[in-house]
Amino acid sequence: MNEPIQPVHMPPLPLTGGCQCGQIRYQISAAPMLYYLCHCTECQRQTASAFGESLRCESETVSITGDLATISWSAASGTKRHGDYCPSCGVRILHRSDARPGNVNVKAGTLDDASWLKPAGHSWTRSKRSFVAIPADDLAYAEGPPDGFTAITARWKAMLEAGRKSPSET
Ligand SMILES: [Zn+2]
Ligand SMILES: [Zn+2]
Fold first, then answer.
1. Ligand 2: distance of its center to the CA of 10 in Å?
2. Which one of the ligands is nearest to 90 CA?
3. What percent of the chain has pLDDT over 70?
4. CA of 164 to the centre of ligand 1 (A)
5. Long-range contacts of 88-93 (CB under 8 A, 24+ apart)
6. Where is the CENP-V/GFA domain (predicted)?
């Protein structure tokens, strides 16, 4: 298999972002671990959109300014999940799972500049919207990745590496 690796040109660190009203701001001080799209019905409902965008980071690399509010729920798997949002404008900033205590998923639509992002993979394509076209060589899984994101993480790393080696076209 010779899957082409899409280069990702990450802007200089820190990455910055925040909520719609400006009460919550954040900085990410190290390269995120992975970026993927989830097409599950829970993400569709939570985002009120077609899919969820997850930019997984080591918790200690994300610093937040402002006080987040939190809601918690149990996923279908039984795992407890938490969503941190701006209490003033309601925008979801982070998702956390008790299964991954050292990580947070930044909701990537809140980045000040998200133009550089390309997903390393797709989960739950079984319920993806019919108009979302996934390139043939993207990593895509009908449900959750059976390898626990190992392949998506490796691909994201290779995409970042390719971006460092090649100049940005933009
Ligand atoms: Zn806000
Ligand atoms: Zn999902």
1. 24
2. 1
3. 96
4. 33
5. 88/19, 88/21, 88/23, 89/19, 89/20, 89/21, 89/23, 91/19, 91/20, 91/21, 91/24, 92/46, 92/47, 93/17, 93/18, 93/19, 93/24, 93/26, 93/64, 93/68
6. 15-125
Quote the ligand 1 centre to 106 CA distance (angstroms). 15
Enter the DSSP assignment of 111.
B
Residue-wise pLDDT for 51-102, tens only, equals: 999 999 999 999 999 999 999 999 878 899 999 999 999 999 999 999 999 9
Which structural domains are found in the chain, ordered by start? 15-125 (2.170.150.70)
Which ligand approaches the C-alpha of residue 144 most closely? 2
Could you report the per-residue pLDDT of 102-125, keeping only the tens digit for each?
999 999 999 999 999 999 999 999
